[in-house]
Design a protein that fits this description.
Elements (H helix, E strand, L loop, with lengths): L1 E9 L4 E4 L2 E4 L3 H6 L8 E11 L6 H14 L5 E5 L5 H11 E2 L4 E5 L12 H14 L3 E6 L2 E4 L3 E3 L8 E3 L6 E4 L2 E4 L12 E2 L7 E5 L8 H7 L4 E6 L13 H9 L3 E6 L12 H8 L3 E2 L5 H14 L3 H8 L10
Parallel strand pairs: 1-4, 1-5, 5-7, 7-8, 15-16, 16-17, 17-18
Antiparallel strand pairs: 2-3, 6-14, 8-9, 9-12, 10-11, 12-13
Helix pairs in contact: 2-3, 3-8, 8-9
Bound molecules: asparagine.
Family: Belongs to the asparaginase 1 family.
EC number: 3.5.1.1
Catalytic activity: L-asparagine + H2O = L-aspartate + NH4(+)
């Protein structure tokens, strides 16, 4: 029988309606009581570690969760973490980098409807998470709506639909059917070294979505504010305007000041390629790091993590040229 640790952090899955609206309240023991069918199949221990809507989960919480996972993992076959859906993809990505060479399942799950309500998806999602642990799907994953998604490829794409998450530019790792869980790929050939926690993060990272007419002076302000990393969501396959409002000299200045800039596409699907158009090449020429087919969530957290590991922009670039958890196609 597999030994599983359930950690709860809050989110809608554990929410009740209070005077101020929905807020997390339900404890792990109550959650487990609602899933009596798991008892005969798993040896389960549980612990409430946070009680937050995921909008309140920030880099400090990612580090706290990573510490607990690192401490507890040797005693279990896998760990399931219940978490709000709104920022689950950020937490999953951050954990993917912090928990280096992870070779056991760490599965995040949650719900669109609280577990105590009719039509809740919480039980099904938890069952899927347990199935992922049982199947030994390694690494940080998200179990949701019968799918297992690599954590650093997940994006929340729906506010209300049960299919809230998609796996972007990467196949699902597994799916649940009537005959059980189908696991497609879980040995991603990347765990060569021993597991270790690398939890240092730099929170001085800013995300800017370009609009037609973005004022170039925004980049001077970001320099004044001492950001060390900037993620730019550019247009289409990769481009920004240089007519009339030329962003390029400003970006050059930032790079000269040692700031790491990573650029990706505003389009959710498919890769960016900044070498394709003149409007993209100019970014590469001033030293911007291409985000390739990574999600914005995976880039933002990777930049925070990279800047936590090194002060050298060249090493940050080298980190972005490395695939740690299946987050990027090189
Ligand atoms: N479905 C959810 O869990 C949404 C909630 N606001 C959260 O992220 O905590």
């Amino acid at each position: 029988m597999k030994k599983v640790l359930l950690l709860t952090t809050g989110g809608t899955i554990a929410a009740r309606t209070g005077e101020q609206g929905l807020a997390p309240d339900i404890k792990c023991q109550d959650i487990l009581q609602m899933l009596p069918e798991l008892e005969g199949f798993f040896e389960i221990e549980s612990r409430d570690i946070l009680n937050l809507d995921s909008s309140n989960i920030q880099p400090e919480e990612w580090q706290y969760i990573a510490e607990i996972v690192t401490e507890m993992l040797p005693k279990y076959d896998g760990i399931i973490i219940t978490h709000g859906t709104d920022t689950m993809a950020y937490t999953a990505s951050a954990l993917s980098y912090m928990l280096q060479n992870l070779c056991k399942p760490v599965v995040l799950t949650g719900a669109q409807i609280p577990i105590e309500r009719m039509f809740t998806d919480a039980k099904r999602n938890l069952q899927t998470a347990f199935a992922a642990v049982n199947a030994g799907v390694e690494g940080v994953t998200i179990a949701f709506d019968d799918k297992i998604i690599n954590g650093c490829r997940a994006v929340k794409v729906r506010t209300l639909g049960f299919n809230a998450f998609e796996s972007i530019s990467a196949p699902y790792l597994g799916e649940v059917y009537a005959d059980g869980i189908h696991v497609y790929a879980h040995n991603m050939d990347r765990k060569r070294d021993t597991f270790c926690l690398k939890k240092e993060l730099c929170t001085d990272v800013f995300l800017l979505k370009l609009i037609p007419g973005t004022n170039p002076e925004i980049f001077d302000r970001l320099l004044d504010m001492k950001y060390r990393g900037i993620v730019i969501e550019a247009f289409g396959a990769g481009g920004t305007h240089f007519e009339r409002r030329n962003l390029i000299p400003k970006l050059k200045k930032l790079v000269e000041n040692g700031i790491s800039i990573v650029a990706c596409s505003q389009c959710l699907y498919e890769k960016s390629d900044f070498s394709m158009y003149e409007v993209g090449r100019k970014l590469l020429e001033c030293g911007v790091i291409p985000g390739r087919d990574m999600t914005t969530e995976a880039i933002v957290t990777k930049l925070m993590w990279a800047l936590g590991q090194t002060e050298d922009p060249k090493e940050v670039r080298a980190i972005f040229n490395t695939d740690y958890a299946g987050e990027v196609t090189l």
